[in-house]
């Protein structure tokens, strides 16, 4: 929990990883390029005091994760969203066994989500069933730009992906986190739209689709789709750290999300270990839309509380202390919520 | 152009660099020279013609390969079309598809020839998509500037604004250039708020059209500054090759951009 200016926030870090990017785990140059790309993101967007050494960045381990998130970082609950990247790393990028053991030791603090790849066909479906049972899965993290043999990507509306979503539905895996963001992409397949989200969200209305990185670098495509699909949510992984060097850009992202999809469908995340949550939580609780952006209304404390934790807590059924809970906003199911505009009227 | 002051290149190299200024990153709507994507440029005389070798660099190893290919092949095209060039070599450095792209460029294999089955979509379609987005963003910059200058103007009436209502400034110039690319009219009485086919909006649809345009503009400006920042992180010293981008600039940009002048922050209550 984070308390500032007499306001307390229940914090859910909805997108974290326990990765291993060390040279001994790199299968090829792409493995090095991938972690180096993350490290450039980290160096470029972090305050100077929060920049880690390259060595520290390659691997953290569970003890450091627990300290960074829970001892130092004000986080009440965090959710693993692992990327497999088996073509780049010998033992994968996200460390399944280590992360699951940590989550099992701290079930009150950690939820383990796993991943699947529909290109694994029938065998992958069996694996998904086994994984769901073993890990008690409530959610999965999907990486459509993952390389797999000759294929460098897949789409959520591929027929095989639909079979996996049907199994998710059957197993109660309701929270589908999808990486739609910068870094590695296949060629044209999803290079500039989130159209496949549109299809699956319409066909699987009982599943939640959390678009990680809220569609950046193509925020407008995400907003347009999410505004029409009540089960599409925005994950703020990688968007959060803009709060430091690019507060106007960050304010615009938040302003747009509030307008198009409303305050109940936006989730905070540090994307640990890309960044640590401590400074992000502090900065977000203190954040105000820059005054020169007169087209947006001020960000309210209630909106900050929902984004920092209550929205993800609701999706994952996490227990929130009664005094920290908030009711849902009274907003339309589809179409622009205009959350900023309605606040202007109230003000 | 900054290049005229640059001691880095000789006369032919400057001419080549100027030609590269005609190559844009389609997504960021900016020349690759302004973005600092040209890593090196060497011109060697080879008889009556000259050999040109250019190395391009991008903000990450995983920048979208279709954009990477588009910029690299456009670079090769503009250099090849100069009357004094012979062999032109364009190499993309440090990209996850460097090998594939460089081999494709050397063989003039084309986009589909380079990427085979992965190249599902035509490059011209990709270009068109981003030209439309660039126009949308330029249109929004003009109309939002108008709204900020005249806060009492009702948003719904923005659909009536014509080109003659816009001030003569860089936003308007940029809009006119992007309209020309799409074949939209530049007559003084032409509507400003139009879709890419030149169609205007009913009054009730104007606010939503403007909001959509705004999110497009935010995306482009945000990406441009993020990519510029990543390039500086990845290639220290590259900031000296980047030309100031006023759209989307923030206070933090002053630390590396000597031409940056932050706008004064005026509290809302004073402005209204």
UniProtKB/TrEMBL annotation, chain A:
GO molecular-function term, one example from the UniProt record: hydrolase activity
CDD domains: metallo-dependent_hydrolases
Domain Amidohydrolase-related: 12-318
Gene3D superfamilies recorded: Metal-dependent hydrolases (3.20.20.140)
One Pfam short name: Amidohydro_2
Tree of life domain: Bacteria
Start-end of Basic and acidic residues biased regions: 338-347
Chain residue ranges for the region called Disordered: 327-347
Stretches assigned to coiled coil: none
Name of the molecule in the record: Amidohydrolase-related domain-containing protein
Lineage: Bacteria, Bacillati, Actinomycetota, Actinomycetes, Propionibacteriales
Automatic annotation (TrEMBL), chain B:
Domain of life: Bacteria
Region (Disordered): 237-272
Domain MIP18 family-like: 14-90
The protein's name in its UniProt record: Uncharacterized protein DUF59
